[in-house]
Design a protein that fits this description.
Length: 411
């Protein structure tokens, strides 16, 4: 069936062989993000302990995390634009190759106990960390409407499941030596690279009969800038920044707080991060679609911000294990119910030709937060004590909640 213009109708496109592969694409994206995030989940809970063993402080932990995010902030929009121009698959392959090499350098740094080499590994990893935005763009290529929020939830579920299993893998590898967890992460990233090379299809412009004429670089940048200046897009970018700014408190200071107050070591802290990932997995893998349909995306964003604020305040005030874990669960629910919806909104606003670029910029808004947040959290911890980063995060989450309430009123 064709339209009067002689082009295939949406119904025909949906029944075409390439459209029938949409679920397969989402599945392979899920596997890609899952394996990549196992490596992330292996390293992040252990990083504060590695830094302390090398003579660094809480501020050093923040600077290392911030250096990763700074280079990611610069690189991600560029990789997003490249994914729009050359396809999602090459960018994902480049990112995985960079991550594998960076983890090898990380393993060498832990074996030689060289703090500068540890910095170098995270800087290089950040420079090639375009995986998530390219994967989100691939999902956006093959989904639309309500299915897009569900597809982004599947990406988030891969992140959550990786964060669940990563600390478990780390606890199994750490008895072999400090070098073993990052080496395991490098091998997983390389395995992911091989899987994507052989199994991940290209998705960009799959639905079009022919690619749109390319625009000059200046015109394309102007076109993207006109989208970014839209009020609704700016709100999404601000929400990305605030959500990730709160998340950096967990990544930077949770292990240090748990060690100081409860005497927990690397294995126990890894299990707490696994709990965080499990809650995110349940929310993003099973609940987010139903919540978005039943409550509406704006209401779910408000609920997520409120839970994140309550979770951070609970962690700050926690004097025992049960209270600390309750705060972690509440915060994980809040973040898990926010990030897929923000990705869905960003891809909706971008249009098919700018999805990779705008999702890359959205990830860079998060990258800016991950650049500033760890340094700030480490400074607060060093100057004012273990609770200070989390009280600061509570204030940030209150601003996050205010923006969500405004978004709900304006719809």
């Amino acid at each position: 069936m064709t339209t009067l213009a002689g082009q295939a109708s949406p119904a025909t496109l949906r029944s075409s062989p390439s459209a029938a592969d949409d679920r397969r694409v989402v599945f392979f994206v899920f596997v890609t993000v899952f394996l990549d995030m196992i490596g992330f989940g292996i390293v992040i809970p252990l990083l504060p302990f590695y830094v302390q063993a090398m003579g660094g402080s809480a501020q050093t932990v923040g600077l290392i995390l911030g250096s990763f995010s700074l280079t990611q902030l610069i690189a991600t929009p560029i990789l997003g634009r490249l994914s729009d121009r050359y396809g999602r698959r090459p960018v994902i392959l480049l990112s995985l190759a960079g991550n594998s090499l960076a983890m090898l350098v990380f393993a060498l740094a832990t074996d030689l106990t060289l703090l500068p080499l540890l910095f170098a590994s995270r800087i290089f990893a950040g420079a090639t960390a375009g995986n998530l935005s390219a994967c989100q763009a691939a999902v956006a290529d093959v989904t639309e409407g309500a299915e897009r929020a569900r597809g982004m939830g599947r990406v988030g579920a891969g992140v959550g499941l990786g964060m669940v299993l990563g600390p478990v893998v780390a606890s199994l590898l750490i008895p072999l030596g400090a070098w073993a967890p990052p080496l395991g992460a490098a091998l997983l990233a390389f395995g992911d690279l091989v899987g994507v090379f052989f199994l991940m299809p290209e998705t960009h412009r799959r639905r079009g009969a022919s690619p749109a004429p390319s625009k000059p670089a200046g015109a394309a940048a102007s076109d993207l800038w006109s989208v970014i200046r839209e009020r609704r897009v700016l709100v999404v970018l601000v929400l990305y920044f605030l959500a990730f700014l709160c998340l950096t408190n967990i990544q930077t200071a949770l292990a240090l707080l748990a060690h100081e107050r409860l005497g927990w070591g690397a294995v126990t802290v890894g299990r707490v991060f696994g709990l965080f990932g499990l809650v995110s997995l349940v929310v993003q893998g099973g609940l987010i679609g139903r919540m978005a349909r039943g409550l509406g995306r704006a209401n779910v964003l408000v609920l997520g911000a409120a839970c994140a604020m309550g979770g951070l305040a609970t962690i700050a005030a926690a004097g025992g294990a049960a209270t600390l874990l309750a705060g972690v669960v509440a915060f994980a629910f809040g973040v898990g119910s926010t990030l897929p919806l923000l990705a869905s909104l960003a891809s909706d606003y971008a249009g098919s030709e700018r999805q990779g670029a705008l999702l890359g910029i959205a990830q860079s808004a998060g990258g800016l937060a991950r650049t500033v947040g760890p340094v700030w959290a480490g400074l607060l911890f060093a100057r004012f004590g273990a609770a200070a980063p989390f009280w600061g995060g509570t204030l940030t989450a209150a601003i996050w909640l205010a923006f969500c309430l405004g978004l709900r009123r304006g719809r």
